[in-house]
Structures are given as structure tokens and as C-alpha cells.
Amino acid sequence: MNWKRMIFFVGLGIAALAMIGLTSDPACAQQRRERVKEGAPAKADIGENALKVYVPPGDLDEYYAFLSGGHSGQLYVFGLPSMRHIRTIPVFTPYPATGYGYDDESKKMLGGLTWGDTHHPGLSETKGEYDGRWLFINDNAHGRVARIDLRDFKTKQIFGPIPNLAGNHASVYLTWNTEYLFGATRFSIPIPKGTAADVKDYKEKYKGVISAIAVDPKDGTMSLGWQIVMPPWNYDVADAGKLVSGDWWFVTTYNTEAEFIDGKPLEITASQRDKDYIIAVNWKGVEGEIKKGNFTEIDGAKVFDPVKTPGFVFAVPCAKSPHGVDVSPDGKWFIGNGKLSPTVSIFSFEKLQKAIQEKNFAQHDMGIPVVKFEAVTEADIPVGLGPLHTVFDDKGFAYTSLFVESAVAKWQWGGGGREWKMVDKIPIQYNIGHIASCEGDTVSPKGKWVFALNKLSKGTHLPVGPDQPESGQLIDISGPKMKLIAQAFPEPEPHYAQIIKTDKIKNVIEVYAKAENKNPNAVWDPKDAKVVREGNTVKVWMTQIRSSLMPNVVRCNEGDKVIMHVTNIEEMRDELHGFGICGYDINGVPSPGETLSYEFIADKPGVWPYYCTNFCSALHQEMQGYLIVNPKK
Amino acid sequence: MNWKRMIFFVGLGIAALAMIGLTSDPACAQQRRERVKEGAPAKADIGENALKVYVPPGDLDEYYAFLSGGHSGQLYVFGLPSMRHIRTIPVFTPYPATGYGYDDESKKMLGGLTWGDTHHPGLSETKGEYDGRWLFINDNAHGRVARIDLRDFKTKQIFGPIPNLAGNHASVYLTWNTEYLFGATRFSIPIPKGTAADVKDYKEKYKGVISAIAVDPKDGTMSLGWQIVMPPWNYDVADAGKLVSGDWWFVTTYNTEAEFIDGKPLEITASQRDKDYIIAVNWKGVEGEIKKGNFTEIDGAKVFDPVKTPGFVFAVPCAKSPHGVDVSPDGKWFIGNGKLSPTVSIFSFEKLQKAIQEKNFAQHDMGIPVVKFEAVTEADIPVGLGPLHTVFDDKGFAYTSLFVESAVAKWQWGGGGREWKMVDKIPIQYNIGHIASCEGDTVSPKGKWVFALNKLSKGTHLPVGPDQPESGQLIDISGPKMKLIAQAFPEPEPHYAQIIKTDKIKNVIEVYAKAENKNPNAVWDPKDAKVVREGNTVKVWMTQIRSSLMPNVVRCNEGDKVIMHVTNIEEMRDELHGFGICGYDINGVPSPGETLSYEFIADKPGVWPYYCTNFCSALHQEMQGYLIVNPKK
Lengths: 633, 633
What we know:
Two copies of one chain form a homodimer.
Chain A: H1 2-23, H2 29-39, H3 46-53, E1 63-68, E2 75-80, E3 84-89, H4 104-110, E4 122-126, E5 129-139, E6 144-149, E7 154-159, E8 180-184, H5 202-205, E9 208-215, E10 222-230, E11 234-240, E12 248-254, H6 266-269, E13 275-282, H7 283-291, E14 296-298, E15 301-304, E16 313-319, E17 322-327, E18 333-338, E19 344-348, H8 349-357, E20 361-365, E21 368-371, H9 373-376, E22 377-381, E23 387-392, E24 397-402, E25 407-412, E26 421-427, E27 432-437, E28 449-454, E29 471-476, E30 483-488, E31 497-501, E32 530-534, E33 537-545, E34 548-550, E35 553-557, E36 561-568, E37 579-581, E38 586-588, E39 595-601, E40 606-611, E41 624-630
Parallel strand pairs in A: 10-15, 33-36, 35-41
Antiparallel strand pairs in A: 1-2, 1-31, 2-3, 4-5, 5-6, 6-7, 8-9, 9-10, 11-12, 12-13, 13-16, 14-15, 17-18, 18-19, 19-22, 20-21, 23-24, 24-25, 25-26, 27-28, 28-29, 29-30, 32-33, 33-34, 36-39, 37-38, 37-40, 40-41
Signal peptide (chains A, B): 1-29
Organism (chains A, B): Desulfomonile tiedjei (strain ATCC 49306 / DSM 6799 / DCB-1)
Keywords (chains A, B): Copper, Metal-binding, Signal
């Protein structure tokens, strides 16, 4: 397929020239902005577009968008169509604005790590529909996954580091009834973790791992289900099947060359083959094997070997280095987005099943059966340069992000006599990575908006120095032609988003019910606030209510351990109180009805004020106390 | 003045009832939103308002707004009128999204503290105009101040903890030619820090301190100028004089009762007096005394005592517990916003000078001369309940935030025959704290917009759990009546903002010039990348360019010290590269042309991938290497 390679490199060249021409010369600012406007509203449309995204004070947005925050380690909540940032949900990084990572419980959950690399948020599903219960998110850096409860929008569990797995990129991509979420190795390593082997022995000693994390259907608690040991390929992006394909899980690969050479860039060694793979996993089948005891235990994980027991894991060839794989709303098709190819490839799930039954394999690669490309492929859509991800609407169209071309392609969904074809394209500013549509990865997409998550913004905003923000652009997909409506600048780095209709998230808690506070150290009346010394430990039970912290004086000795249990006894929405101790590195923000605990050593003698850090009332400034640390004699 | 007290308490009661009525019953959601709409655009205005805040993709905002992030420790850059968040500038809190606090230099700058409490950003001024050079911000919690360079929007210096000072709230409030910025004690303590004394001895042994931090006019470097020891009052909010009052600095006080009683809330003990003070400091005069050697050294600081040497520090009585003090654009007036009073008080700088010359003092309080209220007051404006801050426009009007009333009052500036009078009021959602106008604290305010920074948002957004965001609302002040245009939800907690016309910030760096990289460890060609062992230290010189990190293999032994110098050798705008090491708690983001260093102990054996965390190119996923840590034998 040399023509594809040629097109790719010519395309890359054009894109690079365009980028250089438009960005390195400051005199080009105006020209650059004009280019942006290729995709921007025509003057006549401006009033109409302004109204579409305008949400007057007091009105609410129609959709929640949950954006991953990349290496910020957090999740961001936006409202659509206004694209207003509403809330930061801290997940893998301490966040003093809400006190996350400072109280004993959240500190323990972070396990001594101070950042993560969030990529792919996943809303819990029931029968392939978002059910509004939980939001999961992966940490690519340290191989973890987290659960956010959508009753209070707080991180409740961090699971991991997952054994045997390094780089957890193809995650979370949960099954369509939330039985499992997944993790997969982006960077193969010798297993178990802690084993050192040189890259000279990469092909033999490094391993990939796909990890199924079980989700408790009652409360969402995650636990290690099982793992599949895989060849040392790089596992990239995934999607779970739904309906007919509901027992299956798909993940793209790159570097199926299975090489890592000291001194030679992976970008070269991993781009030799014309095709890499989409791996199709019959997760229900593997689960059955695990139940039968067909596994080896490695570092506490039940590890299944698909080479020893064939029949559950297959490779589907896909144009080189595919990035996203996306299962259609009806579950009948899966789409490979070959990032170094000018097309997306449509594969038929039915044909895959037939090829597997008939053992219609081209070869085995490192023990994994590779089905014949021709046996499973249905169509190739010439979307343009650098397709990364595809999402769906409610009218039978798909939308593919084109990184190299900086565009979104709209194409018609085929099958059943309908033609597979390109129908529209719109320029994007710039280098779009992921793309999200309203409930677009469920069994019933909602249409209306597409959110383009762009890697580069290149001065489409006021200058803010070399650390430029990412760009998010909203596309109106309600008509036959796409319309670029508005632009915002999400926090680094929105790798993916999920968009859910607001009525799916019900019963959000705004004040914790007093009766439900199970913390044995809660006190509900300032009169019960107290300081008790036990040996070298000083224990404090503190209340917060407008406008005092009680006790307002805590005395201890240098070197004492101090444990403070702080209860916000407010019963009114929005009445947060902060708890900061000057000079001591603590800032908590108990929500109304919540009790949080802080433990530290009083290692600095002197008088250290503590105070409410959340402006709460006309007498907020007076909400203050003193920690008096008597020096060692 | 018992009527004032009565009005205040009746007002508080009404406000409290209104808040309870509108917030505790979920059935009130609709009613609550209707109330919001009191201040929201009428239906007929919606199209017009939408257009006013709409900035189409590719167009730029007119103004920068720099918002303090409260206990998040950061600064946030918004564009106005769109109210879009463009960038987070990390200041006192590590921020893995840009790698701040992870490389050796920024880590050292943070000094082991992981949060701050930013309150009052201050743009550098020349002759009372913003000059676009630097942005300063205080840390209320640990008594620090920071400088951000507006060439690259990065934090370049953190100064502090400032000696003798606890709680640095009335900060930074720089002088009108940026000679000094200030810090002041919000929570008096025994000095020097480290001294323990019980609150029983509060009046005698606790001290307030006003601290002048000198700013180097060449490069903005901050250093400790001098301090003034003050009575143990709480120093709240400040402003520097300008033009005629340019040698003076003003700060409000509360708790001039000078009491702190164990078990008794400060909100009660500090609200006994009808009046507290605005302290007026002749900083130029004190500077002269310091130069003459008239100081005592305490903990390395040159401390001036205004009781021993009178003539430089005076108290002006102001309605109880004043919050903001604001100097008018012409420098002739200063305004006290008595947060427990229904009026703002206008004081004349000329009258103050006369009263001082004539020693027209009512008394001395703890040694500080108190000028007669009648001698310096000019007018009282009945703005409404809970005035906190006042800002100015270009047409002779002032705008005061009313916390208790949740409103903004517009009033006419008097003097020279013009009447001092209220002209308009608009409801705000809810509990407005600070307020900012376009260059409104300079000698030439620009008018056009007022930005209301509200403490509570109370469900004027999609539900996001008990930790609700703050609310920011944009008011169009171009016409005779104020119009509430739009609402956004800034990160916690926007205590104050400064708004600057975009053309004032010039020559923003987007790519660091290679020739200006003075780091001795920069390498500019992947061929020069290398690993060198020196004893138990492994030193690495690494390059980053699309799409490889070189070296791509680093070998070391468990327990080695590893020092990595990472240079981003890109020369194109926006081509950031990340540098994350799986399992090791490091994530850096060198900007194009920047070299950053990371030092750590290789304490975890095994194979640990490192990779680019900032999606940079079509082959970003391949931008990867391995740290191989051979285990101890």
C-alpha cells in the first residue's frame, strides 16, 4: 500500500509547512486568525451563533461535559453549550481549593503520588446507556483508575498501581453494563514489576498486559478481576462492545514490530509495518476461563495466557498505527482510525465472528491469531489526514477527528443498502485529538453538538507566554452542514470527554445529611468541641459554623502529634468552610455535614493562626483561632 | 450611632431569611433561578447581551482579567468580555499540568509548602498606570509574596515567609511607581516567629506588623525593605495612594478591641466598638527614618516603632470593621467600606493632612494618634448592606460591592460642586465580595465593564455536589443603568481581580530564544544527548523534539542519584513536551527553548517507562524511553 504511505508523508509535509507558515512569524497573527475564521461563523451568522451558546445568568446548561485533564491529574466539568468550566474534580493531584489530598483519608488514597495522567473518562452504563451513577478515569502514568461518585462529584476510590502494567492508556472503556473497566499496557515492561531486563531482550522479556477491573454493581467498588498476558506491543486506545458485541472488548496496537532499540527513536522502529492490529477480546469467555482456574498468578493477579488457550483473543489488521477504535451505537461495527492513514476502516462484528468460527486466519503473530483483513473489512472512508477518533450522532452520521489535517470529517453511516460516504468537512484550530458527541458512545447518541478537543491553540487567545492552553471548539451538528460555533480553552490536557444530558444525573447531594455522617469523630455543637491530651498526642474535636472555629485555641508542645477532627456543622447549601493553619502545610475544606481529620507533628514552635479559608459570611475574617506550640525546653 | 447598628442587624436578619428561604428547599430551585433573573437580562435584551460577550473563534478578547485563586494557591487568566478561562498560572501550589513544582528550580522556590492562599493580585505601575511588566500576588496563609513575569506568564520569585508576620492579607497593594509592595499581619502573633505566648497576654505580647517589600525597578526582584510594629489589631485590606497621596499607604483594621479570648468567638469580641480604623502610613517618611537608622532589628528585619517616633502613622476612625479601603483615581480621597455598616465613608486626603498638621487628634489608641472623624470625613453614601469594596470608572462614578445585600451600588462621585449620591443598584448572585473594573485602581480607569466576584453561586449552575463553585458576573457599565450580562464560575476563590487592556502587555515570549538559554546543561542536538555516571550519581542530558526523547534508554542501579537535564529543542510556538516517569513522581513540561532539571533517587528497581505527557504530533505516542533500574544484589 505504498500510495497510502505516500499520501501520508505528502500530507504531513503540507501540514508542517502550513503550521510553520502560520505560526513562526509574528506578522502572521492576522493571517492566522483569518485562517481560523475559515471554520468560524460567517458575519451573518454571528448573532445566531452567539445566541446558541449564550446561557443567561440563572439559566442552566443542557449537557454536562466531563473532560479529562491529562497530566494535570484532574477532571473538569463543563456545561454545554456555554462551554463554561463549572468545577474541577480533583482525582490524582492534591487540590487545596477543595482540600483534596490534605485530610487523612484523601491523602491516603493518593498513596504518596502527587500527579496522574488522566485520559479517558468513562460514565457507568446500564444496557449501554449512561446511568448517571459513577464516573471512572484512568491514570496513564502510574497505572491507576479512579471512581467519582456522581451523587457528590467526589473521588471515592483510587485503585492501583495495577500489577504488571506500565502506562495505562487504553483505559477505562467500561463494558456496557459496567461489569468491568479495563487497563492495558501502553509501554510493555518485564513482569512482575520490579524485574529489570535490558531492551536488548525486549521481544522475549517484555510483556503487554490487559487488565480487567471488576466493578461492584451495588456501590461501584473496584477490585482486580483478571489479566491477559500479551505480546510486547503498545496498546493504545479501546472501546467495549455493546448489544450483539457486548461480550467483546477492542483495543488498538502500535509497535507490533515488537522492537525497542537503544538510540533509535520508536517513531521510526514502530512505523515499519503497513498494518498494526485491533485486538478483539472475548472478555466474557476469558472470565469463564478464569473461573475454571485457567490462570497463572503473577504479583497477585490471575493472568490468562491466550497463546496457551486460544479462542478468546484475536488480531484484526488495521492501517498502520491505529489510534482510536470505536464501536457503533448498534454494536455491529467497529471502526479503526489509522493515525498514519488517510482513511477510517469499518469492520463488521458479524464477519469477525464468522472468520473466527472458520479459522480464517492469515497467520499467527507471536501466538495471536490474525484474521484475514479481507474477511472482516466492510468499507474504507477517505476522511482525510490523520484520523484519530470517531463519534456518532442520532441521524446515522459519524464524525472523525483529523489530527494532521486539523479538521472534522462527517460521513454517512452505511449498511442495509445505505451508502458509506463522506458528506462534510470543517477546519479546526488546531490539531484535533479526541472528539466527543452527546452520549455519542452509548446505544442512543443524542446528536446536537460535537466537542472538538484540540491539541494546539496557537494564539487564538490572548498571549499567555510559551505555555499555551489547549483549545476546545463547539460544532453545531443539528443541520446538514457542520457549523463551528465557539471556542474555549480547557485546562491541560483534554484527551477525551463524555457528554451526558443533565437529567441523567439525579439526586445530587448539596448538603450531607447529619444522620448519614458515620464518622465517630463528628461533633455537632460548638459546646462539644474539645482538646484532649493522650501522652504525646493532642486530639482536637473542632466545629465550624458561621463565624467561628471552636476550640479557638489549641495548646500543645513542640514535637507532639496533633490530630484534628473538623466538622462543618452547617446545614445550608454552599456553606463550605476552609481550615488552613498558617505555616503548617494544611488546608481542608469540609463540606456542610462533613467531618475530616488532619494529623501532623507540631514541629514548629510559636503561635500559628488557623482560619477559615473559604469566605463564608460578613464575619468570615473573624473566623480564626490559634495553635500555640510551646517550644522544647 | 445606634440606628446604624440597628439597620445592620435588621438587614442581616432579612438577608439570612432570604438565603434560607431560597436555598434549603429543593422545590425552590425554580423560584431561586427566577430571583437570579431579577438582575438577569430581560428577554428582549438577550440577543444583544449574547453578542456583547460572544467572541467568535479566532477573535481576541479586549481585556485580560487576572483573578486570584484563593486557597487554590494559583492565579487565573480570563479574557473579557467572553469570561473564558485562558490559563492557570501556578504560583504557590505544584501544578503538574505545566510541571511547576517538579523541576529543581520551581520545587526549591516552593520551599516545601504545597499551597498558598492568594488574595490580591497587583500589576506593576508607573506613575499610577499599569505598565504591563509584572504581576504580584500575596499568600495569606504562609506570609509570602510572588512575582509573575508578564513576558512569559511564569512565577519567577517567591519571597517569604516574611519575618514577624502571620497571615498576609492586606497585600500586595503596591505603590504607584512600584517602589514597594506591602504585607501586613492579619493575625497578630508574638514576635519574632517561634515565640510562644498565651492569648491571655494577647494585648501585651502579640503584635501586628506592616512590611514593605522593596521591588528592584530593573528586574522586579523583591527584597525585605523594612517593617512597622503595630498594635495587635487585625489588618485587613489596603490601597496605596497615588498622585497627591502617592507617599501614603492605607490599610483597614478590625479587632481594634485588641482582644482574643479562649472560648469566645472573635466575631463577638471584635464587634464591640462602633468604629475601627483606617491606618494611614506615610511610607516615604518611614523609609527616611529607616535610612537614618531609626529601627530595631527583629529576626533580620529593620523594624520601625511609630509610637516611639510619631509623625508617620495615624488612625482614621471608620464605621465598624471596615473591609476595603480604596483611593480614588485622582488620589484625593480614600473610601472606607464598613462591612457592618450600611454606608461607605468618603475621607479627604487634604483634610487628613490638615488634621495631622494641626494635631487634631481625638485620642491615642495603644500609642497611635487617632484623628478626629469629623475633621477628615467628607461624605457618607447610603449604598446598602455590607459594603466591602469600591471601584471606579472613567465617568466619575464608583461601584461598591454589597455582600449582605448581594448587590452592586453605583454612586456619583462628588466634590467640586458635584453631588455625592446613589444613582443605581443591581442584584448579584450571590454575596459579592470583591469587585473589579477595567484598570479601575489606576489613575485612569477605562470604564466599560465591572466584574462581580461572588462568594456563593447556590445552584445557578448544573449541580456539582456540595463543593459549589464561586460565581463571577459581568456588568455592562457603559450606559446610565448597569446591566448584568453574563455569568461564569471561576476557580476557588476569586478574592480580587485586576483587569488590564490587552495592548498594555507587549512582547510576550512564545518561544524562548536559543541564544538566551543560559542553562549550562542545555543540549541542542539529539546527538549530544548522553548519560554519564559519576560515582553513585547518574547524570543525563536529554533532548525533546517531535517525536523522540533522547537518550531513550537510561540505565542505573537501585539507590543511585539520578539528575536529568531536559531541553525542549523545538523552535515553534505551542510545541510543549511533557516529561513524565511512570511510577516516579515526576512530570515536567519544558517550554520550547527551555531546559529543566530533575533530581531523584532511583529507589524502585525494575523498568520504568518515561514519555512525553503533552500530545505534540501524530507520532506523540511513540515519544517514549525506558529508565532501567537494576536491583541491588
